[in-house]
Amino acid sequence: MRINVIFCTFFSAILCLVTLSGCASRPAQQAPRGKFEQTIKAGDIRLFSYSQPLFREAPRPITSSNRREDGTGKPREDSESQLKRTLNDLEHDPRLKKYCPVGYLIIDKYAVLNEVVIRGECKYSEKPKEK
Question: 4-57 pLDDT, tens per residue?
């Protein structure tokens, strides 16, 4: 009986330690989703291109079970909403913040073929005027 009590106490202590160590660890940092390409042109013009794969639903036969309530068989997420999601991902991407610390301007954004692409240019800080 005494061995059983010691075993249960030992097992409970180990279980508590494992649980606490699991709760104390930081969550893994997510890797950026999209592809970020940088280009520096003459005159220190900093351009970038950010792209993500375009999600498309697999084609399926039209039946009453896969139609929406409004009667259309449109995909759940269209190109415009995927473009908005990609813009949000770009804003939170640490690579962009490092490459364009002052901010950026969007030159072009589009969804074609199999990817969503956002092209932009970094903003520049004004140089102090000489007196």
Answer: 777 777 777 787 667 666 655 555 556 667 899 999 998 889 999 999 988 766
Q: What is the DSSP string of the chain?
A: -HHHHHHHHHHHHHHHHHHHHHHHSPPPPPPP-SEEEEEEETTTEEEEEEEEEPP-PPP----GGGS-TTS----SS-HHHHHHHHHHHHHT-HHHHHH-TT-EEEEEEEEETTEEEEEEEE--PPPPPP-
Domains of the chain, with CATH numbers? 32-58+75-125 (3.30.200)
pTM of the model: 0.60
